[in-house]
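Protein Record: Sequence and Backbone Structure Tokens
======================================================
Scope: a single protein chain, as residues and as a discrete description of its fold.
Tokens: labelled as protein backbone structure tokens, with as many entries as the chain has residues.
Position: the record begins directly beneath this header, with no further notes in between.
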Amino acid sequence: MNNLVYSLLALIIFYIVLVGEFLLPTGGLLGAIALAAFIASLYFAFQFSTFAGICVAAFIAISSPFFIMFLIRIWPNTPVGKRMLNLKRGQTIQPPCKTTNSGTPLSELTGQRGLAKTNLLPSGLVTINGEKIDAVSTGMPIDAGRPIVVVKIDTGHVQVRELSKDELEVKDPPQPSTPKILEDSLDSFDFE
């Protein structure tokens, strides 16, 4: 067998041992073996010819980052990755949703009204349903004591804006109601 075959065998061993490094807790031993296979692959390729050495080096330089990114992406789903991340069976790696002190998910605050407890320049405290919550103003600064409405929740931050005078006149936002025709038609049935 010539040096090019040895180079390709060492390259295959490099990738196989690299997979083993990610899947088995060896403390870097397989990583050292993969490094030795990498160096051997380059050595044998350059021993065969300069062109073969450059081709093998280019292949490794292009494919290795993608291969390692793939291994990093699947690692949390492996038994070793789950154990190291302390994940239970069926548990995802998604962080739990943020909640208020009373346990209300922040996503349920969208559209609710409250008062600015402190000046929002652009961040500060607001009171919604009697609970103090850290918030960020979406536009202009909001003075303390001014009415606000929660616009959206973005990456765990409550974004609010000041209520306009027109919105203040309406006590509660309009709620969808059942049309009168439906109520009458349901009453006309005799269920007894």
Q: What stands out?
A: DSSP finds six helices and five strands in the chain. The chain has two domains: 3-84, 106-164.
